[in-house]
Amino acid sequence: MSALSETERRGVLDKVLSTIDAKFMGAEPNTRGMRDEHEDRIIRAQSLDDFEQAMNAMLKLLGASHTGFFHEKRPRATGRIAIAATLMKAQTSDGLRWMFQDVHPGGVASLAGIQSGDVLLKVDDRELVPPDAMPFVLGQTYTFTLRHADKSTAIATLTIPGSKEKQRPIVVPDKVVNSSKLADGTGVVRVSMFPGVLGMDVARDISRAIADLKCDRLVIDLRGNTGGGIGCLRVMSHLCSDRRGVGYSVSREVAKKGFSKERLPAFDHIPTSKLGVVPLIFRFARARRSVAVFTEALGQQAHHGRVAMLINEHSASAAEMVAAFASEYRLATLVGVKTAGRLVATSAFKVGMGYRLVLPVAAYYTWNGTNLEGAGVVPTIEEPLSTDGLLNGEDNQLTRAVQCLHEGVAA
After folding, report:
1. C-alpha–C-alpha distance, residues 312 and 41, integer Å
2. In this structure, are residues 237 and 295 in contact, taking their beta carbons and an 8 Å threshold?
3. pTM value > 0.70
4. What is the C-alpha separation between 96 and 381, in angstroms, rounded?
5. Crossing angle, helix 6-23 and helix 48-59, to 10 degrees?
6. How would residue 289 be classed by pLDDT, with cut points 50, 70 and 90?
7. pLDDT value of position 282
8. Where are the domains of the chain?
9. Which string of b and e fits 193-232 if b means at least 16 CB within 10 Å?
10. Closest to 373 measured CA to CA, from 56, 66, 58, 45
């Protein structure tokens, strides 16, 4: 890819701002102010990296999550998406550093041998110290210098797969649902993300994991879950036996006209095969992101009333839908810290020269009318993660969740 000319950069900027005016769902954007503040830096960008960074800096003025600007040939993603791992700031023997927090099985970081509690010292030859962070280019290889809990230093090579999806670049681990049974008989189901528009595969894997565990006490671990699609409905459907309102999404056009949530098209079943997708296409073709979501009425299950849910500051998007549903209906005891508050429906728009602009195009509300964007979900029991515990291989949040189940703490 070659650098753009000033005329080409200006053309892309004009298209970005006009698209924001036409499509953005959120507080009324001040695109003139955005141009005044950032145009000079964008137009004078000397490299492709500078151009993208300047554009993304401007998008921050929208004050919304899930905004982004990238080129189709070199999509970037944050660590939680690119390497299936999250990091937290921690005081270590090397000073203030990034410590690996949620390392999802089957993800790029896990496959490279990285574990929760490892401290990140360098990425390639660059020392990385909070608050500095970096996005990762999909399809590239990086070298991480790490400090293990025993103070030894290690080198890990991480090769990030390319994305098959141009509109929303994403890396999906081979397995996003993992389950285990603790010594006391409590079942643990960990879901790292909800891939797929309809989530048929992840829904099947969630149901299979719960059925195989055969537990009357269940911990659902959504820490570090980056969100995704409607496959999250299957977790909510396993929390109750009946059909209940989960929440609703409304587009900009519908919000302006006014609406009744009860009269929105209802989504209450994840299809089990591709044949089941066809009726949904016709049913929701005109919905344009405006839809009400209901649980699937899967019937009574042994763990009902004895569920704990783990959440943290990296639980986002569809994971927050699940946490909010569990909280509003008191179907699970939420343990951890407040979620990210990043929950909007997005679309990616072509803005010229191979670039795409990602914008929120619909707002999501819980069935009680709560908008989680910028707010997040507060846990029933506040339990910050212990960095000392991580270094010793201990998970104080999981321990607290299991304790709550044994003590019968109410949701």
Report:
1. 36
2. yes
3. yes
4. 28
5. 20
6. confident
7. 56
8. 6-63, 78-159, 177-344+362-407
9. bbbbebbbebbebbbebbeebebebbbbbbbbbbbbbbbb
10. 66
**Rounded mean pLDDT of the chain?**
92
The owner of tokens 């309809």 is 198
Asked whether this chain's domains 78-159 and 177-344+362-407 adopt the same fold, the reply is no
For the domain spanning 177-344+362-407, the CATH number is 3.90.226.10
Residues 6+ positions from 288 with CB-CB distance below 8 Å? 251, 253, 254
Query: What is d(CA 203, CA 205) in angstroms, rounded to the nearest whole number?
Result: 5
Contact between residue 317 and residue 343 where contact means Cβ atoms under 8 Å apart: yes
CB 113 within 8 A of CB 105: no
- What length does the chain have? 411
CA atoms within 13 A on the CB side of 63: 8
8/88 Cα distance (integer angstroms): 39
Q: How far apart are CA 273 and CA 275, in angstroms?
A: 5
Distances from the Cα of 375 to the Cα of 176, 260, 371, 378, angstroms: 26, 23, 8, 9
Q: What is the pLDDT of residues 39-54, one digit of tens each?
A: 999 999 989 999 999 9
Distances (CA, A) of 39 to 52, 60, 187, 294: 13, 14, 54, 45
More confident residue, 74 or 349: 349
Query: If we measure between CA atoms, which residue out of 220, 219, 218, 173 comes closest to residue 193?
Result: 173
C-alpha span between 113 and 154 (Å, rounded): 10
Q: What tokens does 316 get?
A: 């986002």
Tokens matching residue 130: 């909070």
Q: What end-to-end distance do the CA atoms of the chain give, in Å?
A: 54
DSSP 8-state symbol, 262: G
Query: Given this structure, which CATH class describes domain 78-159?
Result: mainly beta
**Residues 27-42 pLDDT 10s:** 999 999 999 999 999 9
Strands (E), 222-342: 245-251, 266-267, 291-294, 307-311, 333-336
CB 78 within 8 A of CB 342: no
